[in-house]
Amino acid sequence: MANLNTQSFSAIVSNFAAAVQGSASQLIDFTIGSVLRAIAEAMGGVALWLQGLILQVAALTRAATSNGTDLDSWFAQFGFAREAAVAAETQETFSRYTPTNQTVIPLGATVTTADGSVSFTVIADATNAAYSATAGGYVLPAGQASVNVTMQCTVAGTVGNVAAGALNTLGTAIAGVDYVSNGANVQNGIAAETDTAARARFVLWVAGLGGATLIAIQAAIAGVQQNMSGIIVENQQYNGQTQYGYFTVVANDGSGSLTSTEQANVANAIENVRPLTVTFGVHAPVQDAVTVSMTITTASGYTHSTVTAAVQAALIAYINEIETTASGATLPYTSLAAQAYQIEGVTNVTNVLLNGGTSDLTITYQQVFEATTGSVTVN
Prior knowledge:
This is Phage-related baseplate assembly protein. It comes from Paraburkholderia bannensis. It holds the Pfam family Baseplate_J. Residues 98-189 form the Baseplate protein J-like barrel domain. It is extended, with a radius of gyration of 30 Å. It has a six-stranded antiparallel sheet with strand order 8-3-4-7-1-9, with no helix packed on it. By secondary structure, the chain is of the alpha+beta class. Helix content is 29%, strand content 26%. The chain has four domains: 9-61; 89-182, no CATH class; 208-284, GMP Synthetase, Chain A, domain 3 (2-Layer Sandwich), CATH 3.30.300; 288-378, no CATH class.
């Protein structure tokens, strides 16, 4: 929206006085308490109110200037909606000291953080071997000390993204269960789509309304869920063979992977907009494991173990954030030392190895780089 030429209260009153004086043949009294001063200030108050209404209307009538619920109502006129927040899920370990009898962890049972601020609930998961629909939960057999249970945060969004070991309190008493813990960081909770992201996706959505275009397919993929993206390669099968009228999609849910359910959802979304007689295939990205090792020297006054942990975290984040495009991606060998030097306290970096060597790594559009705490070693 172009900047509107607004005026302050004092400017409105001053302009009123200037206009009156300019049209009068003699000096006009505009001192405080005068009749014309009172009229000017009354008119200025009304003008300021009208100006505010105009600004408010201007802000609410365009997506670029609307925010929050106002933006949602603007989108609703076109049948478009903001993508909702996603509740975090994790595998929680339910354990006991004496594994004598069989125990069932029922659906709906809860665990919380120590302060009770974050709560997770047991949910059904047919892919978990311990889940039994008949028993109504997860079975912990006699003689077995622990079982992993699928749980979901009771509140959607990033509130459920907690550190490993944080979910350590039973919210529901369960006979035969003594303690609980999550063995890994929970990181898959997603906040509701931001105003900026929703506006960007709306533009893509509008551009693809005609269907049967590259933009329409990109919009369909992006609309499946938050952080979903796809690399589209035309006239080529997944194995590299040329096939006209066919396109390959490598979809990524933002974590470098794609579940079977997400894969089916992407395929269904594309099916609704693909051109007639054109066929396609949807595939998950192949995670290309990256191993890194290096030795660092730390400055005096710094704890070496703390600095190495910070360097390791920085390297993992950097590698996993490299975006794969239709032409693939490259991980430069020299960038690893550069990442380490950005951490405060690092004075020297030596013995840097990338997958056991000193060359850049290159992957195809079908792959994504994957680094973990087990594959990145900093001494």
